[in-house]
């Protein structure tokens, strides 16, 4: 069993009765998502919703992540980051390399391609190999993003396994200019976040200015939080926790990872403001407050960040 998931799918987790399994598309199908699917993927508008439901249910069968139930693969998290337009996209157009860790169905890579980034330097990684073909089914773009750009790997595997895995052997240490980790690091407790951070730093280019960026669930009050059912137990039956950061604790995490790996870093992090913001804007922070808190708490906020090698 991969270390990132230390047990089987929890009993009952695939039920479609959980509140995060949305039976009907509402505001998840944003103009950006609709435009990409109809223009880039050439899905006929009359078939669009049926196409999305079919893909979502196949992804739910792979693993019932709440984000899958909520159609988050239609949300382009990287494009919402304030560095996307003025830093990430221009660098990609100049031929820099990008790796999306925890890529799910590769939505951020497709948005980059749609916005003009050459696909040959874009890579994705996730735990489930089934995501690669399902992403091609969703985006219908195997003619533009050739096989070999998706790596099935476990960022938390034992060191010998990780070192001999595809991220380290096929992509290689110190080879990636831009690494995006959107809605990923918050899946783990502090110990595993630190382990993940050090391994991501091993993949980051040695060139100053190389950058890690993304967003995740954060909190006004930092610390370990116990998950709610059905994801509240580890494989050994112990209570599962995840660490929620505020900006200060997030900076501490990456300073510690930088010290472990010997990588000099500049870390920036900010919590969303507790006010509503128009969902889907890709030129600034998404400061929207999540109104349906199934797995989160009232103090939960979105945390946006960048970690730059100096």
Give the topology, please.
Layout: H1 31-40, H2 48-62, H3 66-69, H4 83-93, E1 98-101, H5 107-114, E2 122-126, H6 130-139, E3 150-152, H7 159-163, H8 166-171, E4 178-180, H9 190-203, E5 211-219, E6 223-226, E7 241-244, H10 247-261, E8 265-271, E9 300-309
Parallel strand pairs: 1-2, 1-4, 2-3, 4-5
Antiparallel strand pairs: 5-9, 6-7, 8-9
What does it look like?
By secondary structure, the protein is α/β, with parallel strands linked by helices. The chain has helices spanning 31-40, 48-62, 66-69, 83-93, 107-114, 130-139, 159-163, 166-171, 190-203, 247-261, and strands at 98-101, 122-126, 150-152, 178-180, 211-219, 223-226, 241-244, 265-271, 300-309. The protein has a single domain (76-309), classed as 3-Layer(aba) Sandwich (Rossmann fold), CATH 3.40.50. It is 32% helix and 16% strand. The strands form two sheets. It has a seven-stranded mixed β-sheet with strand order 3-2-1-4-5-9-8, covered by helices on one side. Strand 1 (98-101), helix 5 and strand 2 (122-126) form a beta-alpha-beta unit. The longest helix is centred in the first third of the chain and has 15 residues, at 48-62. It is globular and about 55 Å long.
